[in-house]
Amino acid sequence: MIEIDQLVFEYPGHRALDGVSLRLERGSVTALVGPNGAGKSTLLRCMAGLETPLSGQIRIDGISVIDAPRQVHRKLGYLSDFFGLYEGLRVRQCLAYAALAVGVARQQLPGRVAQVAQAMDLTALLQRRPGELSRGQRQRLAIGQAIIHSPQVLLLDEPASGLDPQARSSLAALFRQLQAQGMTLLVSSHILSELDEYSTHILSIRQGRIVSHEDLRASPHWPQPAGPDAPAAADAPQRQQRDPHLYPHLLELACAPDEEQALQARLEAAWAQLPHSQGLPPPARHASASPPSVLPPSPAGQAHWVPNGAEPAVSLQWQLWLPAAATARAQLVQQLVAAGLPVAGLWPLRLRLQERYARSLQTEPPSPWPTEQPPHAGERP
């Protein structure tokens, strides 16, 4: 969906982007992270067609941002970290003007304005002017202007700035909804805990270079499984390369302490009935708690009381492979419950974004140039 090749951008006396190359897949939500001055905002502005790079190419849905920026703008929404609003217009007019500017037909305006106003909690404010809004309300209006034309790509620079906790939670829900509709999002923010709620990928940038670009659903650090099937279940990176559509999950079951072996057999039998389980190892037991950096933090093997208080139960965890879609998890839970298994929870297994970012800080930004001789001003390829 988004392709960037060897992008270079220079300010006077400073190279802000140094050979940036990346690919963002359709429907992904990528967290753009890095220290201040790393080049995050410059990268977003280049992608939005607001800055002309020294060299390189940017394509969105196959269209060159450099050669056809206005054509790209119809497919793209952009929110700057320091955005402006037309103070003389009312909220309804701001949304309508933003829609017309990117080619939305006039007959579609009432429906689009009403839909976006509801999504951004602006319906009661449509007759107000931006100067009468709070900081958070102005932020929601700016985001509404960016999505008024239902873009295929949404670029956001610090979108949660100025929002209260409830508004931030609503914003995360909105991003998940937009992703479910197939929109591709690239979000820059310093609030990593919020990015963790909806991001599928992390793109770490430092000194104008890409340090890492990873799928958050494919963690290289798994809790170590136990049992005879452990070697087959532990080859996470190799399995991910063979089938990138499968991701590790953690299944939690509750049972009495003397039922563990029987529960393992019942789980394997139910797993074998699932269509996607062919060729994959059976669920692998986890004998200890997951590390704190791995989702979820629920401790395995911890005794607790079942809801009716009749007898103590043990929480046991298994690692298994599933497609990323929620329907796959629902199918598995339905199958396990039908088999009489005591399902306590099922989670995608991945590292927290904070852990990914901390690890990237320990890596030196690699040079994108084979001979360490990048182009300089006046040497545009």
From TrEMBL:
Chain segments annotated as coiled-coil in the UniProt record: none
Region annotated Disordered, chain positions: 218-240, 276-306, 360-381
Record-level Gene Ontology MF annotations: ATP binding; ATP hydrolysis activity
Pfam families listed in its UniProt record: ABC_tran
Annotated InterPro entries: AAA+_ATPase, ABC_transporter-like_ATP-bd, P-loop_NTPase
Keywords for this protein: ATP-binding, Cell membrane, Membrane, Nucleotide-binding, Transport
Transmembrane helix found in the keyword field: no
Keyword Coiled coil: no
Sequence ranges of Low complexity compositional bias: 229-239
Family in the record: Belongs to the ABC transporter superfamily.
Name by which UniProt lists this protein: ABC transporter
Natural source organism: Vandammella animalimorsus
